[in-house]
């Protein structure tokens, strides 16, 4: 059986080797989840809630262990890894709370003459087995966004975490076992997307695929999944506008963090930053100074800001795109530096909208700063994207803020913040190339349940 080597992304050391799940193993896991479904679906809401809250508490108690593992297998700076653990505890807590309020409503059947004498209401029923496939960049919280709602709603699931970062999910599953989750309710399978993920997506058993990852893989999944529900949380080349009335004290540190946290490997990472020309010089001077002061290096250092990228291939791709942009006339305001998986933050100006660093999802520690003349120009540039996940606008002018809300075809508009803002109970997801459907615990539960109408004929 082929094996998966999980490495420490900073040192390159092998942390653990896992067997790769082939199609037969995936089939067995789906079978176990199917057999566990009837009992879990019939488990009372207060009991499902207690298990979710119990798991959240166990994760919280092991924060240090989780954060260290995330820092090592994902290369995420420790402070952001620890922040992810806090968020995932909250996500599972929201799921435990939502488990108790999954309900339908009554339907006024007599609104139709044909419905006279009838009483109608609907329930929300679990779907069955959910296939969950997750990316490397939030190995705990993006897993939580699938596991929490699936379990709260009474579904069982088969989870395939990213092959680069499966160990955090294994530790999470241990917390669920300790909290009393019955066998078979959450199955884990490990391996590359084209092997294990593909077998899971094509399997006819599950009722739904919930996927978070890149747009090309999402598009492929939609084609091969067959007759089942599909939720796709995909990428973005996220942008933010800074208007002249914005507070630079607020906007500068926040935009720097939004561009470079987790080496820019965040689906709502700030990649296109549009700054009004009236403040562009002052803004850029401060932006570059704050960027230069970032601490780059070992993610286990408590004060590290930027660690390594996930793989050599990812760093190669980013380097190629940056060099291509520089060859075509872009300017770097920070020194370009790359060592293996480490890529130092890059601030670019003089970029064009058709450069890959602008029009494709970079998923790397780079940002383009673009000047604009009028608010309408800036807004048009921000809106010019095939992606539609989140966008930001710094302004204290409500009329401008609402013009942006109306003009942007995105899942979320952040006013006086960047595209990167997210808390875990808000509806979250993208339009167009950024995906289909919404997460944010209550919204994911809606997409992981079927409406079941009950109609009583009380007429003569
Ligand atoms: P990826 O698409 O390469 O992989 C994501 C998951 O899909 C992994 O588990 C992988 O093994 C699996 N996979 C790959 N090929 C597959 C196939 N053919 N069939 C089934 N599964 C397959 O993405 P990544 O590099 O891990 O993550 C980065 C991407 O994820 C970026 O595009 C980012 O924007 C996106 N993302 C989106 C969100 C969101 O909520 N919208 C959040 C985080 C990341």
Write the layout of secondary structure elements.
Layout: E1 3-7, E2 14-19, H1 23-41, H2 45-61, H3 63-74, H4 78-98, E3 106-107, E4 118-126, E5 129-133, H5 141-152, E6 156-160, H6 166-178, E7 186-188, H7 193-202, E8 208-212, H8 215-224, E9 229-233, E10 239-242, H9 248-260, E11 272-276, H10 277-292, H11 312-327, E12 331-332, E13 338-339, E14 342-343, E15 346-349, H12 356-359, E16 366-372, H13 375-383, E17 387-388, E18 390-394, H14 398-407, E19 412-415, E20 431-432, E21 435-436, H15 441-447, E22 449-457
Parallel strand pairs: 5-6, 5-8, 6-7, 8-9, 10-11, 10-18, 11-16, 15-16, 18-19
Antiparallel strand pairs: 1-2, 3-4, 4-22, 9-21, 12-15, 13-14, 17-20
Bound molecules: nicotinamide-adenine-dinucleotide (NAD).
């Amino acid at each position: 059986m082929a094996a998966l080597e999980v490495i420490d992304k900073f040192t390159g050391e092998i942390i653990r080797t896992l067997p790769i799940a082939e199609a037969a193993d995936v089939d067995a896991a789906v079978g176990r989840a199917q057999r566990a479904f009837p009992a879990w679906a019939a488990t009372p809401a207060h009991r499902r809630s207690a298990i979710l809250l119990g798991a959240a508490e166990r994760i919280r108690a092991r924060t240090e262990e989780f954060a260290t593992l995330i820092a090592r297998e994902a290369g995420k700076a420790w402070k952001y890894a620890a922040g992810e653990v806090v968020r995932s505890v909250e996500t599972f807590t929201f799921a435990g709370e939502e488990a108790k309020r999954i309900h339908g409503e009554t339907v006024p059947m007599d609104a139709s003459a044909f419905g006279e004498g009838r009483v109608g209401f609907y329930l929300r029923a679990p779907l069955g087995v959910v296939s969950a496939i997750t990316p490397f960049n939030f190995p705990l919280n993006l897993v939580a966004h699938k596991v929490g709602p699936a379990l709260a709603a009474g579904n069982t699931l088969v989870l395939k975490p990213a092959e680069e970062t499966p160990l955090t999910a294994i530790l999470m599953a241990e917390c669920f076992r300790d909290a009393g989750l019955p066998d078979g309710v959450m199955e884990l399978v490990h391996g590359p997307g084209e092997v294990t993920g593909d077998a899971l997506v094509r399997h006819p058993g599950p009722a739904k695929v919930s996927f978070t990852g890149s747009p090309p893989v999402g598009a492929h999944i939609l084609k091969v999944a067959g007759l089942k529900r599909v939720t796709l949380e995909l990428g973005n080349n996220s942008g933010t506008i800074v208007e002249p009335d914005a507070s630079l004290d607020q906007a500068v540190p926040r935009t720097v963090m939004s561009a470079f946290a987790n080496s820019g490997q965040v689906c709502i990472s700030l990649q296109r930053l549009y700054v009004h020309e009236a403040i562009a010089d002052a803004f850029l001077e401060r932006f570059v100074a704050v960027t230069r002061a970032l601490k780059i290096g070992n993610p286990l250092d408590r004060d590290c800001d930027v660690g390594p990228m996930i793989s050599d291939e990812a760093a190669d791709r980013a380097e190629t795109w940056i060099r291509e942009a520089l060859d075509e006339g872009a300017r770097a305001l920070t020194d370009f530096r790359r060592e293996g998986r480490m890529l130092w933050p890059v601030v670019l100006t003089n970029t064009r909208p058709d450069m890959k660093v602008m029009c494709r999802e970079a998923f790397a520690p780079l940002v383009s700063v673009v000047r604009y003349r009028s608010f309408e120009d800036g807004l048009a540039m921000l809106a010019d994207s095939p992606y539609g996940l989140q966008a930001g606008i710094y302004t204290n002018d409500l009329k401008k803020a609402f013009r942006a809300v109306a003009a942007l075809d995105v899942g979320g508009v952040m006013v006086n913040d960047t595209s990167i803002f997210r808390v875990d109970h808000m509806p979250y997801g993208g339009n167009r190339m950024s995906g289909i459907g919404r997460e944010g615990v209550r919204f994911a539960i809606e997409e992981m349940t079927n409406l079941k109408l009950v109609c009583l004929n009380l007429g003569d």
